[in-house]
Write a structure and sequence with these properties.
Distance between the termini: 34 Å
Strand content: 15-25%
Number of strands: 7
Largest sheet: 7 strands, mixed
Shape: elongated
CATH topology: Aminopeptidase
Order of helices and strands: EHHHHHEEEHEHEHE
Structural class: alpha+beta
Number of domains: 1
Radius of gyration: 21 Å
CATH class: Alpha Beta
Helix content: 40-55%
CATH superfamily: Gcn5-related N-acetyltransferase (GNAT)
CATH architecture: 3-Layer(aba) Sandwich
């Protein structure tokens, strides 16, 4: 992994961090749309609409047009869901990275830099739902720098920080469409502990599932 330096976030990294996060999340729209199309409810609605219009109109043109419009609308639902999550994140923790991650001893935000350019990010903070654990967040690597071991190095950075702080484990959440992330986490020892559907209407319609992973650590010391 040549010319890669992992360091703590600096204020001048803000724009690059937001861009990497936004592009990374937007990449999941196509796979999420395909997941929606595979759902039995979606297929049933498409079939019913097509057959009903074909029977009533005696023409292929109207049902094909209706199905096309339905698919376009369904994709917009997926885009809306991701854009809403991106906007919320940019307005919350990614709008005040220093306040959220760098002002407390048990949280941190790192970037990976290649030839002076920020190409990846990761962060952690105490997990609200899992006392005694830190939650890995905001893992994202630029497409141009993937499969270079950067994500694995960043996971190791979080694990080392977690161990040094005396926490028992690292936990994280990822989605069913982030298959590469799942393989990465499992390859370094994370175990899936539960899965659940996002409690929002659009996500429920899509059956959009989140996975929780956990990496247990051997603690060498106690927290300050």
């Amino acid at each position: 992994m040549a010319n890669i330096q992992v360091r703590k976030y600096r204020d001048e990294d803000a724009e690059a961090v937001r861009e990497i996060f936004t592009l990374g999340m937007s990449e999941h729209v196509p796979s999420s749309f395909m997941h929606l199309l595979k759902q039995p409810l979606t297929q049933m609605v498409l079939m019913c609409v097509f057959c009903a219009l074909l029977t009533s109109s005696k023409s292929f043109l109207l049902p094909i047009l209706a199905v096309t419009l339905f698919l376009a609308g369904a994709r917009q639902v997926v885009v809306y869901m991701f854009n809403r999550y991106i906007d919320t994140s940019l307005r919350k923790d990614l709008n005040s990275i220093r306040d959220t991650y760098l002002k407390h001893k048990d949280s941190c935000f790192w970037v990976a830099e290649s030839d002076g350019r920020v190409v990846a990010t990761v962060a952690c903070l105490p997990a609200e739902h899992a006392p005694g654990c830190l939650e890995l967040k905001r893992m994202s690597v630029c497409r141009s720098h993937r499969r270079m071991g950067i994500a694995k190095t960043l996971c190791g950075t979080v694990a080392e920080f977690t161990r040094d702080r005396g926490f028992a484990a690292v936990v994280l959440f990822t989605s069913l469409v982030q298959t590469d992330a799942q393989k990465l986490y499992e390859s370094i020892g994370f175990e899936k502990t539960r899965e659940f559907v996002v409690p929002e209407l659009a996500a429920k319609i899509m059956n959009f599932t989140l996975f929780e992973y956990r990496l247990d650590l051997q603690r060498d010391g106690k927290r300050d």
